[in-house]
Write a structure and sequence with these properties.
Strand content: under 5%
Helix content: 55-70%
Order of helices and strands: HHHHHHHHHH
Number of domains: 1
Distance between the termini: 78 Å
């Protein structure tokens, strides 16, 4: 999951674009900002769901039928949990790759720790899957937000997002076709041989 976020941050940096928004922006607006939430879905929710399965279904089925409320809420939680760490790592230590269990590979003391999975004596990593009590309460809050947002949105985001994914798929298909190998006609004399073996042509010549 951390790879998906650092990849997103690195891509925006290479293209001189703003870094991905902080988690508070996504959580506050969710589907109300369709363009922003589509970017979040493309980069983060797709990574959590599984890129291959996601790409195969999201352009033909509604987003809300593919992604459960709990999976959407969990992705928002993961994003908040690691955002500061991943942003710092991508900016200051791009050669280091953190994990989502809390701690990361970088030893720089300036690197922010994970929000809800940092290892300490009170919350050992094997309890509650490594999540703190605050993290679990945050998940419940996000789940309620997602459920309310889906009810209010009433499928509008799903329709727009499906069209977006169809357009994205067609664009990639055109790019692959543009990079295809040029078709070359192979020379042969099969036509001449076929003509010689055709009895009607032989009779006409006689």
């Amino acid at each position: 999951m951390s790879h998906a976020d650092t990849e997103w941050i690195n891509n925006t940096s290479r293209n001189s674009e703003p870094v991905p928004p902080p988690p508070e922006e996504f959580q506050e607006r969710l589907r109300a900002n369709q363009k922003q939430y589509m970017a979040f879905a493309d980069s983060m929710i797709r990574a959590v769901h599984g890129k291959s399965r996601y790409s195969e279904t999201v352009s033909v089925k509604s987003f809300d039928t593919i992604i459960s409320k709990s999976q959407e809420a969990f992705t928002l939680l993961l994003y908040e949990n690691g955002y500061k760490n991943w942003l710092w790592t991508a900016t200051n230590d791009p050669g280091s790759m953190s994990d989502t269990s809390g701690g990361g590979n970088t030893t720089d003391s300036n690197c922010p720790v994970y929000g809800y999975t940092s290892r300490n004596g009170e919350n050992p990593p094997n309890r509650n899957g490594g999540w703190s009590t605050e993290g679990m309460l945050k998940f419940n809050e996000l789940y309620r937000r997602v459920a309310a947002d889906r009810a209010f949105d009433n499928g509008a985001f799903g329709r727009v997002y499906m069209a977006h994914r169809v357009s994205k798929f067609k664009s990639k298909k055109r790019q692959r076709r543009g990079r295809g190998v040029e078709e070359v006609t192979i020379l042969d004399d099969l036509g001449d041989l076929q003509a010689l073996s055709d009895p009607e042509n032989n009779a006409a010549e006689v």
